[in-house]
Amino acid sequence: MSDVETTLRGPEAYKIARRALDLMERHQVWPTALNFELWTHFVADPDGALARELTRLISLGEPMTEIISEELAAAYLPKARLNEQIRDAGDLLSKELASVSQAIQNAQKSNAAFGKQLDGATKDLNANADVGAIKSVVTSLAQATRRVHKENQSLEARLAESTAEVDRLREHLEQVRRDATTDGLTNLANRKAFDEELDRACAEGDEAGSSLCLAVLDIDHFKGFNDTWGHQTGDQVIRYVASVIGRVAAMPRFAARYGGEEFAMIFPRESAAIVASCLEEIRVEVSSRTLKRRSTNEDLGTITISSGFAERARDESSHSLMERADAALYASKRSGRNKVSSAADAAASANAA
């Protein structure tokens, strides 16, 4: 998730949205979904490349037509650029496959013609005992054989080139896919990838009858920290916490930045005791370091995280599992933060109360 997208999921988002609508009305820009996305990015990142280009167009008196909006989105909005990359790779792949198909068709025609020539030669040899005629047939067959051999060699070379090109396009599409499912700030998986993986893990758990735990982790008092030190330093803290989580999230575990300062982890086939131990390890490591501001080396103090986890019941939906993990996280927050809580303990405490 980019810094702008993080800002648009924070407490300033409503002010940014209202400011964007005011600017759109002032410049007579229709509040379509695409225009709204462009102008909220403009307000959230006034020094960014998109803002500079919009400012330039406004200064020139350019009307904000749909065509211009689409061009701006393709150039500056991550999702639009991603869709364009996928379309371009798909077009190249289609052209490559069409070229190979044509080469194969040409080879088939040549082989069919060669087959007919062989049939004709057989008839000529059966009908003629004349040495000169036989020599002529053999010479013709030799020439046809060389021609087909040459065309087959050309086809083999073309197929080798095409294989290399398809491999390159496959790697490119895989990189596009990784970019689409990776959070830009932390290099963990993003929310979209997490949602897909959680659904997949739940389906796999039902099929195999295996256990599954879900954990939600949140940086304590992060808004106050951001207000004191600024978003750039806040991003530094998010990256630090993500690095700690990433170190313990080896496969088959799955870690993601869920949004803002919140993270989520999936633990397939692991017991609640192991998950609690893992979350405690993360909590201790995060709180054990005194952080310094990278730009000035100022002492930022320590950061703590709260977490909650839930063990999935048989056939439980991913939505219900997430709700119980969130409830466990809130239990950690209510009881003083910098803690690990399980959904089972949170439910027991609520019933006791």
TrEMBL record:
Keywords linked to the UniProt accession: Coiled coil
Entry EC no(s): 2.7.7.65
Coiled-coil regions, chain positions: 152-179
Annotated segments matching region Disordered: 334-353
Family annotation (InterPro entries): Diguanylate_Cyclase (IPR050469), GGDEF_dom (IPR000160), Nucleotide_cyclase (IPR029787), Rev_trsase/Diguanyl_cyclase (IPR043128)
Low complexity bias locations: 341-353
Pfam families: GGDEF (PF00990)
GO cellular component, one term: plasma membrane
PROSITE patterns, sorted: GGDEF (PS50887)
Residue ranges constituting the GGDEF domain according to the UniProt record: 210-345
GO molecular function terms noted in the UniProt entry: diguanylate cyclase activity
Catalytic reaction equation(s): 2 GTP = 3',3'-c-di-GMP + 2 diphosphate
Keyword field contains Coiled coil: yes
Entry superkingdom: Bacteria
Protein's GO biological process: cell adhesion involved in single-species biofilm formation; negative regulation of bacterial-type flagellum-dependent cell motility
Descriptive protein name: diguanylate cyclase
Native source species: Caulobacter henricii
